[in-house]
Amino acid sequence: MSEFLTLLSPQEALKRWLNALPEVEPEGEEISTLEALGRVTAEPIRAPEPMPLFPRSTVDGYAVRAADTFGASDSLPAYLTLVGEIGMGRAPEFTLQPGQAALIYTGGMLPEGADAVVMLEHTQTTMPGEIEVLRPVGVGENVLKVGEDVQIEDEVIPAGVRLRPPEIGGLMGLGITKLRVVKKPRVGIVSSGDEVIPPEQPLRPGQVRDINSYSLSALVEVEGGLPQRYGIVPDREDALREVIGRALEENDMIIVSAGSSIGTRDLTARVINEMGLPGVLVHGINIRPGKPTILAVCNGKPILGLSGNPVSALVVAQIFLPPVLEHLLGLTLKRPRARLQACLTLNVPSQAGREDYVPVRLIESAKGLLAEPIFYKSNLIFSLVRADGLLRIPADATGLASGAEVEVWLL
């Protein structure tokens, strides 16, 4: 196959893959806002009411007319008549007149006539029914105005936004308890190999338990997809063709683990290429781990072919899966991946011209955050279990020196 191991950079490979995908019109469904964390909005959400709905105090203090406090100081306080206390959760039953003040708590509703709140610590009581104001306040000071956060009919969340805790809280604050979100893309996961057995079975010599189906399923869920596992397929072309074909019909995307390396059992690329056009777009990426990765599109559906080595499969999936799921979800607001800066504790070698990803453990120290490399072999999954993130070594580097400031992608 002409594409086989024609190495591209990860960036070039991803661009080629995404460019071959058709535009999507994600299907929506209505769910409870309580269940919407991590889901993507299927349509714009507008405010049914202003927020706040009434003028509120942001501090404990006294509701006042700002003009009554002008010029107040410790040596020349303003004297105001205390006319009452504003209870929480109900509207004041009086109007504040000039020269008056009312005790108010954080979140309380301002009475008619009040236009500011003076903080409690900037007042003192001289006699029953009277307070001294020791500092002036301006109009609107320590007050949330009606609609200051959101005006009625404002678009508070556009379509194509992944919902986080702030969005969930904001929606609930507006009384929006149901909303339409994009249905989760279905991702079929196929694991192949005569030596691979289900996790619940006892091992015999030469066998390994299936890791990739489950680590990849978990990653799909984290990234907003719905994984569908298709079990373990033997290293036979007819079996692989049947399972991949069925998975392609039933899902929006396919991930195939194993069968993507050079050797007599390299069936994956050939079978995928038969599944539809344009077929295999990339077979070989200039990256470690994950050099023999396959990227394909068959009849509009993306297929990701991964090495059977658990670390290689998961590292490559961390790079290539999220952008494609974002495309399938119609995500318009793409927030940057969580990453941070740390100081490298050891020299890390690398081959020039190849992009390397090295698991690291993060350590807090008096000098700041340290990144300790975890040197590994690509079939040892617990090297990733012990890691907090991945250190990317650019293709134009021959390694990184101890003490270098590095960027770590959090796992």
TrEMBL record:
Domain annotation MoaB/Mog: ranges: 188-327
Repeat among keywords: no
UniProt keyword annotation of Amino-acid biosynthesis present: no
Pathway involvement of the protein, from the record: Cofactor biosynthesis; molybdopterin biosynthesis
Pfam families, alphabetized: MoCF_biosynth, MoeA_C, MoeA_N
Sorted UniProt keywords: Magnesium, Metal-binding, Molybdenum, Molybdenum cofactor biosynthesis, Transferase
Catalytic activity from the UniProt record: adenylyl-molybdopterin + molybdate = Mo-molybdopterin + AMP + H(+)
Gene Ontology, cellular component aspect: cytosol
MF-aspect GO terms: metal ion binding; molybdopterin molybdotransferase activity
E.C. no: 2.10.1.1
CC cofactor: Mg(2+)
Gene3D superfamilies, alphabetized: MoaB/Mog-like domain, MoeA, C-terminal, domain IV, Molybdopterin biosynthesis moea protein, domain 2, Molybdopterin biosynthesis moea protein, domain 3
InterPro entries with a match to the protein in the record: MoaB/Mog-like_dom_sf, MoaB/Mog_dom, MoCF_biosynth_CS, MoeA-like, MoeA_C_domain_IV, MoeA_C_domain_IV_sf, MoeA_linker/N, MoeA_linker/N_sf
SUPFAM superfamilies per UniProt: MoeA C-terminal domain-like, MoeA N-terminal region -like, Molybdenum cofactor biosynthesis proteins
An example Gene Ontology biological process: Mo-molybdopterin cofactor biosynthetic process
Purpose: Catalyzes the insertion of molybdate into adenylated molybdopterin with the concomitant release of AMP.
NCBIfam families: Glp_gephyrin (NF045515), molyb_syn (TIGR00177)
Similarity comment text for this entry: Belongs to the MoeA family.
Name of the protein in its database record: Molybdopterin molybdenumtransferase
Annotated source species: Thermanaerothrix daxensis
